[in-house]
Amino acid sequence: MMPKAQMLKELVPVTARGEATRRKLLAAAEEEFGGKGFHAASVSSITTRAGVGQGTFYLYFHSKEEIFITLVREIGRKLRKQMLSAAGDAVDRIEAERYSLQGFLEFTQKHPGLYRIVQEAQFVDEAVYREYYERLAKGYSEGLSEAVRRGEIAPGDAEARAWALMGIGHFLGMHWCLWQGKMPERQIIDDVMNMVSHGLSSAA
Where are the domains of the chain? Predict the structure, then answer.
């Protein structure tokens, strides 16, 4: 089934000023959806927060559903970019895992509405909800496969590993960044990376 956001032609700004307004609307939408949830938020509450007229909204988005779906995709794109950038200076895959995990946690702390927005996406447009995670997993899998080819990590199913590592980051972010409002301490990251590097076996 085609995602709802693809049923209408995307409204693309043609000027730098227009793009700035579009980004202002997306930033306001992130705060509204992240704070209130999809159903309680409205186009009027988004435009009020953005400081633009309600008519201006429809120059950039057809509906509340469309800006929500656009926001989920934009958050996913920014998250992948930050994690990739964070891992850029790593000397090997294990170090890259640590840096990308830290990048994810930092992103989560800066975007407290992330969890609510993404989880609600499954009820607004399930295809976009799955796309968010599958794109993240795809990049993860490719990086892990390349690390195996370079001899940095042992052979194994890259897809299964990708989803497992994403799960670790997801719940660390939920427990510390979302619920406690802070980054995990260095010792916590050390313990997690020790588990990632050596597994749970006492012989590792």
Answer: 12-61, 66-198
